[in-house]
Amino acid sequence: MTRPPLAVFDLDGTLADTGHRQRFLARRPCDWAAFFAAAPDDPPLAEGVALALADARDCEIAYLTGRPEKYRRPTLDWLAAHGLPEGTLWMRANDDRRPARHAKLDLLRRLARGRKVRHLVDDDALVCDASARAGFPVVHAQWATPSAALLDAQEREGRT
Question: CA 140, CA 136: separation in Å to the nearest integer?
Fold first, then answer.
């Protein structure tokens, strides 16, 4: 029996609207504890949720986030509270500070071993470009308001 394809979803800016917590990234240094503590209050992004629910009909769902591992429990609680399909949650190691495009691509390669990936859905253009160059189908999630502070944090500080 063959396994269904994987549909892989980013969280911040793809499924979760992080707009209300961007203020914590505008400070120098960034207030990462406050940024992640506010994540349970993220409203869901309807377009991303709808795509995840549609994919769940014939795909296995995986969540791939640059959030550190120590935020696993509140992240799982958020996914369940917003009716997202069950799926494996892949998170960045707590001490991993590589740019998101490197950290996420490494995780994507690991979870895709021996599996067909229908697509990666992510809002970060650099993650999308790196994943597409590595041969993965990509959906660039452009339904959230882009955040220069979040992009800078992902690239410069490797935190989400």
Answer: 12
Write out the two tokens for 64. Answer: 């791939």
* pLDDT tens-place string over residues 56-97: 999 999 999 989 999 999 999 999 999 999 999 999 888 888
* E-state strands within the chain: 6-9, 60-68, 87-92, 117-122, 138-140
Using alpha carbons only, how large is the chain's radius of gyration in Å?
15
3-state secondary structure of 64: strand
- The type of residue at 70 is K
Quick one: angle between helices 125-133 and 100-111, nearest 10? 50
At 113-158, the pLDDT tens digits run: 989 999 999 999 999 999 999 999 999 999 987 766 666 666 665 5
Q: Which residues contact 103 (CB under 8 A, 6 or more apart)?
A: 66, 92, 96, 158
**b or e along 63-92 (b: 16 or more beta carbons within 10 Å of the residue's beta carbon)?**
bbbbbbeebeeebeebbeeeebbebebbbb
Q: Which long-range contacts (CB under 8 A, 24 or more apart) does 25-32 make?
A: 25/147, 25/149, 25/150, 25/152, 25/153, 26/149, 30/153, 30/157, 30/159, 32/159
pLDDT above 90 (res 7): yes
C-beta of residue 101 within 8 angstroms of C-beta of residue 76: no
